[in-house]
Write a structure and sequence with these properties.
Blueprint: H1 3-10, H2 22-27, H3 40-43, H4 57-63, H5 74-78, E1 82-89, E2 92-97, E3 100-103, H6 111-124, E4 135-139, E5 145-149, E6 159-163, H7 172-178, H8 183-194, E7 199-203, H9 209-217, E8 226-228, H10 235-244, E9 250-255, H11 259-271, H12 279-289, E10 292-298, E11 304-316, E12 319-327
Parallel strand pairs: 7-9, 7-10, 8-9
Antiparallel strand pairs: 1-2, 1-6, 2-3, 4-5, 5-6, 10-11, 11-12
Helix pairs in contact: 10-12, 11-12
């Protein structure tokens, strides 16, 4: 069943004339009056999105029970123009400032200095890191994601990445203004969220997956929000089974180079869960659980854009077939 049918069925609207081109029907909301009482464009006006109060990161951490300090890079963490921090070595400290990655003048004394800083902030979070537990993957009280790795897992030396939560909760209208999303896409995605479709967001690191996920979550007009930052491990297959039983309206994200690459990753995660589920069953669960894929890319000029929106159609042979709704042309 196509995505148009799913939306119409869930909202109990009259059927759409399938002679229309799929992308034109939803992206341009060109539906006849007798087919839909209110067009997507009229039902989801951008001006109705709510505004949220501004709270600085410094204020958040003054109020937080946990005062995390990141040593030499702490000033970057408190800089509200910085959205990401990467430490690849004592003299390789990068930050993402206003959407651009730049090499900073901040330096550590040596690799041992980086190890000590990692150990201190991990201890503040109640996590022990050593050669037996050399990988840290956690979230701070404000939602910022912190990753660190130590030898022997880090063959080229210790490393740190921090993906900060935005000081403002961005709305879909902000993403339109930034060029990440077009108005037509915004209307379509609003309809998908409103009609409780299951949406998976794919893209590389720093492409804007979490930013888009949070913006879409603000459109959910119900008490229960089903939002998953990144599906991992044993959770994957259980989540797909829950969706098949009627728990719909999921928003999730995952690192990948394309929607098909994310499907491959989800299949592998499910296979490695140890449940012994045949790959054919896993594919059927995936195809039945996911309605829409959104892929984000970070372009060479540093901007982030939705470069692909696709619907899940069917399984042909051993492949889950996707149909493009929108494809970015540079």
């Amino acid at each position: 069943m196509g995505l148009v049918n799913r939306i119409q069925q869930k909202t109990k609207r009259q059927a759409v004339n399938h002679k229309h081109d799929f992308s034109k029907v939803l992206l341009n909301a060109s539906l006849r009056p007798n087919e839909m009482k209110i067009s997507v464009r009229e039902k989801y006006p951008i001006a109705k999105f709510n505004e949220y109060p501004k709270v600085s990161l410094l204020e958040k951490y003054k109020e937080s029970k946990i005062a995390i300090h990141f040593g030499p890079i702490h000033s970057l963490f408190l800089d509200e123009n910085v959205s990401g921090i990467m430490v690849n070595g004592p003299c390789q400290v990068y930050c993402e400032r206003n959407g651009k990655i730049e090499l900073t003048s901040i330096q550590f004394r040596d690799n041992e200095h980086i190890v000590n800083v990692i150990g201190k902030f991990a201890a503040q979070l109640g996590i022990k890191m050593d050669e037996n537990s050399p990988i840290l993957d956690t979230r701070l009280p404000d939602g910022s994601c912190v990753n660190a790795i130590l030898p022997p897992a880090a063959t080229k030396g210790p490393a740190i990445t921090i993906k900060k939560t935005s000081k403002n909760s961005l709305q879909l209208k902000d993403l339109i203004n930034s060029g990440m999303v077009t108005e037509e896409m915004a209307h379509f995605l609003s309809a998908c969220v409103e009609d409780r479709l299951n949406i998976f967001i794919s893209g590389g690191s720093g492409a804007g997956k979490t930013t888009l996920l949070n913006a879409l979550s603000h459109l959910i007009q119900r008490d229960e929000k089903r939002i998953i930052g990144d599906i991992r491990g044993n959770d994957a297959f259980s989540i797909f089974q829950a969706i098949k039983k009627g728990h719909d309206g999921l928003l999730a994200e995952g690192n990948s180079n394309s929607p098909t690459n994310l499907i491959d990753r989800l299949e592998i995660i499910s296979l490695l869960s140890g449940m012994g589920t045949p790959i054919r069953v896993i594919r059927e669960q995936l195809a039945g659980a996911i309605d829409v894929f959104i892929h984000l890319s970070r372009l060479t000029d540093g901007t982030r854009k939705i470069t692909n929106i696709a619907e899940v159609q069917e399984i042909k042979g051993n492949t889950i077939v996707l149909r493009d709704i929108y494809s970015y042309q540079s």
